[in-house]
Design brief:
Strand order of the largest sheet of chain A: 5-2-1-9-20
Structural class of chain A: alpha/beta
Radius of gyration of chain A: 22 Å
Distance between the termini of chain A: 61 Å
CATH class of the largest domain in chain A: Alpha Beta
Strand content of chain A: 15-25%
Largest sheet of chain A: 5 strands, parallel
Oligomer: homodimer
CATH architecture of the largest domain in chain A: 3-Layer(bba) Sandwich
């Protein structure tokens, strides 16, 4: 076993897992390192943040996924550097791991465009902790409004601002609006939750820019029907504990969510290779790190420009395709066969939901919107979940919400009580 | 509505909820105050700590439970005092709430018998956060053992000590042993999780002292069959980050769980009335606070000695019976009818599980043990859960574990990484 070629994969996201999955049976030892013990199904994370799903329904312990693959070792540790000469990876715990081939699939996090001071007041949504933080803030805002006797304060508490109108921003805005309009009204005695304002801000000219204009327009109208105020073409210029400045207009709000920018992991810095503006390592057409032997970079932390000049988008299907491609390339190298040609991304289509009853789907020329698209979206997502148990659990949660209109995962947890938050963030 | 008699209930545990439920239709305004937004099904909390259930399967937002009862107002706030002369309750947020009748059902927390410094290294199990903390520690111990190259360190990491052998301690020990013996072995490459030691320590002469001796013996043998080391008749004399001292013997361990003592909430102090050693307010035979008009104390924070001299035990069924009794008493007072006689506790029986296949049940003379008892235990607990959704979800989780042997809720969350814990608690 020790004599086998040793592949080290850093990152158990969509790209890393697809690579390891596709290498089943290859003559390799594989070490998969992640600083989390779980793979996260990012596309549904917004549902954890908005009380629809529980954390365990969108995340799976990585080592459990590979329990039957004896050649795969899972390490829970943080990578802090790479030594391409010694061919080792440095771990935060102090150890090092030697590799024959290294694949960095370390993903991305939110970017605040040079305004990192906005993060505490406008958290992004990348991890399970982010999701429970946002869930707690949304629920606490309603609770504090119920307790408040000051009308201006109550209005600020009942104003929710989502910054960035990609799929995550749109999905968050839709569900928060539904929560306020349909789920919560009968539970409060001093406030009318239907008075809550949900504002979706987008600096670009339209929401869901990855979709064609008619679908993007449809999504906007659907959101507005749910009561969401959509403001496009105007950037956010300040975020504070008191509210947000949209262009020149200050909007008092106690709950901001950041769904705008993306910053790649420091993979390019570890390797000392050039990166693009978002910090993504610029890799060759075969996803290799230029000038560094046996190192590849895939997923959201890689910048790949295809032969036709088009960049590969930073989405889950692209990362998975890169994982599959790299598995083929590694198998070819191991067996001395010629390597496959350059990586080519195949766009399978785009999906987004708006609230509980509408979705938009675009597969090339095929376009679909409305309730039927919503069902297709749901079925597709259940299909992509890992394991029978999760599929049943998520299907049950959705069916329950669909039938009863009641969200179940509405727990305020972590040691931040209603008073602590007040004292930290000002009244 | 404002002219109606105003009942304030503090605490949304078993006692408080039962009281509010039993007062349905009574000519009252009710305000229910809790510092958590959820009711917690404590008897299953150990299953959250041991990766069997998700947090949202054992907790429900309180205000959701009373959405159809317009006369019930739910407040998320912490009570910090009572003024029995002005007849008001002081809230941590600064406000006060006036009452006509006040019921304190504020429960209890763990007690460390004057050793509060043990709490950080030996957390108890009372809240959802406690459960996720213990779950994280258990899972991180295995992860760190997998990374460690030091044999002594590995042994300490794979030693789990549960202090206190009541139902919670026994249930925790059983499930941790099963996790190590059956669920985890095939997922690790450098350690054999079956080498893990689970030690259950009890200062008293036997485990599950509430049960008769034959059942208590059976439980002990069942635990030992699962690989749990049971040590009775010997107290814990020290807990540190390095391990635990049991009598005079030091046992290196990185994961301690406290399931021993109980300390009542400060209800007696708020009222300035006498309390017992555990801090429970000593109340009259009708659960009233002696010498204070219109104030009652129920559940784990009340000490009730019945006419036959027997104390009422601090368990969920007793709290619920007190809630029902007090509802009758309040209805009688409102309508000018004579008050019911003294509160009498009716012991319905005791249940405890040992691991995944055995349980013991004792209803007076009726005794049952083994697999059939386990099924009865499961059905009884599903019956007592709140709401169709949770019953289905828990039944599905249990069925899945029963069929597949795989626990699903194995997520390490909260911002305590493997390194942070090391640096905080020493290597």
């Amino acid at each position: 076993m020790q004599d086998l070629h040793h592949l080290v994969v850093v990152g158990g996201g969509f790209g890393g897992l697809q690579l390891v999955n596709s290498l089943k049976g290859a003559p390799l030892r594989i070490t998969l390192i992640d600083r989390r013990n779980h793979h996260l199904f990012q596309p549904l994370l917004y549902q954890v943040a908005t009380t629809v799903l529980a954390t365990s329904e969108v995340a799976w312990p990585i080592r459990h996924l590979y329990r039957h693959r004896a050649e795969v070792t899972t390490l829970l540790d943080e990578v802090v550097g790479v030594d391409p000469v010694a061919k080792t990876v440095q771990l935060g715990g102090g150890g090092t791991v030697a590799y024959d081939t290294l694949v960095l699939a370390t993903g991305a996090t939110h970017a605040y465009f040079g305004h990192d001071e906005w993060e505490p007041v406008a958290p992004g949504l990348k991890t399970l902790e982010d999701a429970t933080t946002i869930r707690r803030r949304i629920l606490l805002a309603f609770e504090r409004a119920e307790l408040s006797s000051d009308a201006a304060e109550r209005e600020a508490l009942l104003t929710f601002v989502i910054i960035g109108a990609g799929p995550t921003g749109v999905e968050l805005a839709g569900i928060i609006a539904e929560l306020a309009q349909r789920t919560l009204p009968e539970e409060f005695r001093h406030i009318d939750t239907r008075q809550a304002k949900v504002i979706l801000v987008e600096a670009g000219p339209r929401i869901l820019a990855a979709f064609s204009e008619p679908l993007s327009d449809y999504a906007r109208r659907s959101l507005e029907k749910l009561g969401v105020e959509v403001r496009t073409g105007v950037p956010v210029t300040a975020c504070t504990a008191e509210g947000v400045t949209i262009g020149d207009t200050f909007v008092p709000s106690r709950t901001l969510v950041w769904a705008a920018g993306v910053q790649a992991s420091p993979a390019a810095r570890w390797l000392g290779i050039p990166c693009d503006r978002a910090g993504r390592a610029i890799v060759g057409p075969d996803l290799s790190a230029p000038g560094i032997a046996d190192v590849f970079v895939i997923g959201d932390t890689a910048s790949v420009i295809q032969e036709d000049g088009k960049p590969v988008p930073g989405i889950a299907p692209a990362a998975k395709q890169q994982g599959t491609y790299l598995a083929r390339l590694i198998r070819a190298r191991l067996s001395g066969r010629p390597a496959p040609g350059a990586f080519r991304y195949w766009h399978q289509g785009s999906l987004a939901t708006i609230g509980r009853r509408a979705a938009i789907i675009e597969f090339g020329k095929f376009k679909l919107k409305g309730a039927f698209a919503w069902w297709l979206w749901g079925i597709a997502h259940i299909y992509f979940l890992i394991g029978t148990r999760s599929r049943f659990a998520v299907a049950w949660s959705w069916l329950w919400i669909f039938l009863s209109g009641q969200h179940s995962a509405r727990l305020i947890t972590q040691r931040e009580t209603i008073q602590q938050r007040e004292s930290r963030e000002g009244p």
